[in-house]
Write a structure and sequence with these properties.
The protein is α/β, with parallel strands linked by helices and about 600 residues long. Helices cover about 40% and strands about 15% of the residues. It has 19 helices and 16 strands. The strands form 3 sheets. The chain has an 11-stranded mixed β-sheet with strand order 3-4-8-10-9-11-12-13-14-15-16, sandwiched between helices. Helix 1 runs antiparallel to helix 2, helix 2 runs antiparallel to helix 3 and helix 14 packs across helix 15.
């Protein structure tokens, strides 16, 4: 081979190596790639005709693509703990039978993963209310997480690039590479508890986010070990997502004994909460001291549980991070019932199905190809009986105390590819603020395209996320109930203070990416965990050695800034909230 050919082969090898890394290929993918390169080098040197050499290069590229496919990581259930051959817990008796969990590496926490709380919602149970789980004989080993709920999966290369660009937390080991399975059979929950004898421990029931379309409870940043070490029992779980969780149909409503449709994922959450209320004492938890918590769509779901008559009496307090549904017209994760039904009719036509029974026969993967988003709850008259703000006005919501808040750059990543300039600035804002757009532009003038983009990020962070917490805090305070509101502003090398950036602090999981954090971050995480634990235990986050967190009634419009320095600060969006209030009143009055 001549120097030029060697140089070309080196470039191709480097590019292919990068693809193997980004696709998280197994070690066999690397072995095949090396064999392919060696074989090509030997063969190419023996070929003299030009067209044969061209064929060799084309063959190399085709075989590289095949190697990527052959090197794909296998599907494998995620272990409940990172310890190799972990010790098994004592037997626990729950309503369905006996089970065991495993201990974490230092033996301080017991983890029980993959406990079924409902029958698999497959076949005839697709788009039906969750059914009671089946009992089992013998002792069930609960040592691996169940598959994540059905959802669209990006190619591994796309996920890797996202992790590198947004999270700065890319990790890869060709000897341990695997993919997490996806299934409609995903209604299982996971429990982290302090090791040993525990009695009447507070319970934190966490709902994962993901726009009601994606997400999984096995996500590393939701690991509950750190909180469990502080005396709290942490529970999370899978629930139906996207079209499987939020598809609505008149036909489904008619066949339901409760007349419900469109809220199957929410009904799963209620079923999981009911299971915990009935069984958590077996793990040492206090069924009368459950705090529901969630982030993003999980926080919207918390709001739904707070107004659902089906969840009354199943929990006491609520934690909501970066979303809520108390405005007259919530900005996301909520839609009108008629809109939900219309979307349901569209999917029947799109899938060529004559009725729901035909739709149930369609493979789950094909249903995920629907062009429309199924990412919103609705007023179905059963799980949610009216617009949430009406329930709050009457004081019939379920939570007795609230800890909630937002991050300082909530919308930035959502708007990453949004084109904004001075030319379309007015149009972009008018879609949200209608006749009040000029007032918003007066607050946030934009003389350049860069200013227009930055302003839209700020304005949408306030409208989509922060406003719901401002409104929720006012609702609860008007009822005389304690509210603790925060604003997470801490910048770091990871997700920073963007949407979801507070999660590793709350769960104490900075150690999964220590290179992204400074010593001040570890201190902040320790304090945030103590706030959350104290709130779950007593309804008041304050405690010895912590900066004082005033209630919203004590310090209205001044959330607690969570940063290297923790202190109440004025909410930066108060002037904008006044305009949003006006727009929400108009919507209530039917002025579009």
């Amino acid at each position: 081979m001549k120097a030029g050919a060697w140089a070309a082969l080196a470039v191709i090898a480097l590019l292919f190596g990068a693809l193997l890394v980004l696709s998280k290929s197994t070690v066999w993918g690397w072995v095949l790639a090396l064999l392919l390169l060696a074989s090509f080098a030997m063969l190419y040197g023996r070929v003299e005709r030009g067209w044969l050499r061209t064929a060799c290069w084309l063959g190399l590229l085709i075989l590289f693509a095949l190697t990527l496919k052959l090197g794909e990581a296998p599907y494998r259930a995620i272990p409940a703990v990172s310890a190799k051959d972990p010790a098994v817990t004592e037997i626990v008796q729950v309503s369905q039978g006996k089970l065991t969990g495993v201990y974490n590496e230092d033996g301080s926490v017991e983890v029980y993963a993959g406990i079924p709380y409902a029958k698999p919602p497959v076949g005839e149970l697709r788009w039906r209310e969750p059914q009671e789980p089946e009992s089992w004989e013998g002792v069930r080993a609960c040592d691996t997480f169940a598959p994540m709920s059905m959802q669209q999966r990006n190619p591994a290369i796309v996920d890797s690039l996202t992790t590198i660009v947004a999270f700065h937390n890319f990790r890869y080991d060709p000897f341990k590479s695997f993919r997490e399975p996806v299934s409609e059979d995903s209604l299982y929950l996971n429990i982290w508890k302090p090791a040993g004898e525990v009695k009447d421990a507070p319970v934190l029931f966490f709902i994962h986010g993901g726009s009601l379309q994606t997400g999984q409870p096995s996500y590393g940043e939701y690991n509950g070990e750190s909180l469990a070490k502080q005396g709290v029992i942490v529970v999370n779980f899978g629930y139906r997502l996207n079209i499987f969780g939020y598809f609505a149909s008149e036909e489904l409503a008619a066949e339901s004994p409760n007349g419900t449709t469109g809220n199957y994922g929410l009904l799963d959450q209620i079923a999981a909460l009911r299971w915990v209320h009935e069984n958590i004492a077996a793990f040492g938890g206090d069924a009368d001291n459950i705090t529901i918590a969630g982030e993003s769509a999980g926080a919207s779901s918390v709001g739904a549980l707070c107004v659902s008559p089906l969840a009354k009496g199943l929990f006491r307090r609520a934690v909501a991070e970066s979303s809520g549904i108390t405005p007259v017209k919530p900005y996301h994760t909520f839609r009108a019932y008629d809109d939900a039904l219309e979307l349901g009719r569209k999917v029947l036509a799109e899938q060529g199905a004559a009725n729901v029974q035909a739709l149930r026969a369609i493979p789950a993967e094909k249903l995920l190809s629907s062009a429309d988003p199924y990412n919103a709850m609705t007023v179905d008259g059963y799980a949610i009986t009216e617009q949430p703000y009406l329930t709050y006005e009457r004081g019939e919501n379920n939570e007795e105390a609230l800890l909630n808040g937002f991050n300082s750059h909530e919308a930035d990543l959502f708007n990453f590819f949004l084109k904004v300039s001075t030319g379309n600035y007015d149009e972009t804002l008018r879609a949200i603020f209608a006749g009040h757009t000029d007032e918003v532009e007066a607050l946030y003038p934009a003389a350049t395209d860069a200013e227009a983009k930055a302003n839209v990020n700020t304005i949408l962070s306030a409208a989509w996320f922060a406003y719901s917490h401002y409104d929720w805090s006012r609702c609860m305070t008007a009822q005389g109930k304690p509210v603790y509101e925060y604003c997470f502003t801490r910048a770091n090398g990871g997700l920073s203070n963007n949407h979801g950036g507070e999660m590793p602090y709350v769960f104490g999981n900075l150690g999964t990416q220590p290179y992204n954090y400074a010593p001040e971050d570890w201190t902040l995480s320790e304090r945030m965990q103590r706030y959350w634990v104290n709130f779950a235990r007593t309804g008041d986050p304050n405690g010895e050695g912590l900066p004082y967190w005033p209630t919203y009634a004590e310090s209205p419009g001044r959330p607690l800034k969570l940063d290297a320095k923790i202190e109440p600060v004025e909410d930066p969006y108060l002037k904008l909230y006044e305009i949003i209030d006006l727009r929400q009143r108009e919507i209530r009055d039917g002025i579009e």
